[in-house]
Amino acid sequence: MQPIRKHDEDVTEDQPAAPRATRLKPGERRVHILQTLAAMLEAPKNEKITTAALAARLGVSEAALYRHFASKAQMFEGLIEFIEQTLFGLINQIVAKEPNGILQARAIALTLLNFSAKNPGMTRVLTCEALVGEHERLTERVNQLLERVEASLKQCLRLGVMDASGHKEHAEQHAIPAIPLSADYDPVVRASLLLSYIIGRWHRFVRSGFSRAPNEQADAQLRLILQ
Question: DNA binding happens at which residues (predicted)?
């Protein structure tokens, strides 16, 4: 999400009036509210965000916020939905372009880490640290998102095992590079480990005040996890 410009509604007599911005449509205003919420979550100190502070940042009244979202919880739900749509759009692109299941899982993991690095405020939502004290359904919603990610990783790794375990015809048909795997390779266990690694990297990124990049040394570490 790109930063949002503040729209001032009141101008003093001593202050020249700025050119009036184009009036936003309801859907655009909702997006700007979510953009601003995500930006406020990027503050190094993990302080609870109030609707009053969010309204002040936007330069509108709290009542104006509630015309677009019934509650702050609904704002967070909108942000979670945006994150989910973005991530699974990227995941679907990876699966469509990369035929090798192991490389699919690796690319997905890197994508999740890179998304975090570029969107620190949204990372606070993914780790649920921004949701402390909020409605419990928000944490459940994030958990559902992560379960979808883990299911995608399992599917990728199962494909990788199938390609590595003798399905040469399938591999040759799709020009899949051979990646040696151990005889006891378990896609379910590896997918769980991979997701735990990603979540751990997100947490370290947040707790370091966004100073420890989540994708630091990720290439080498993912090779250890996936092969």
Answer: 50-69
Domains 1-69 and 72-226 share a fold: no
What ranges do the domains of the chain cover? Answer: 1-69, 72-226
pTM of the complete model: 0.82
pLDDT in single tens digits along all 227 residues of the chain: 544 333 433 333 444 433 333 465 656 888 999 999 999 999 877 678 899 999 999 999 999 999 999 999 999 999 999 999 999 999 999 999 999 999 999 999 999 999 999 999 999 999 999 999 899 999 999 999 999 999 999 999 999 988 776 554 544 555 545 566 777 889 999 999 999 999 999 999 999 999 999 999 999 999 999 98
CATH number given to 72-226: 1.10.357.10
Q: Is 91 exposed, middle or buried (0-12, 13-18, 19+ CB in 10 A)?
A: buried
List CB contacts of 51: < 8 A, sequence separation 6 or more.
Answer: 62, 65, 66, 72
CATH of 1-69, one of 1.10.10, 2.30.31, 1.10.1760, 1.20.120: 1.10.10
41 phi and psi angles, rounded to 5 deg: -70, -10
Q: 146, 195 in Cβ contact below 8 A?
A: yes
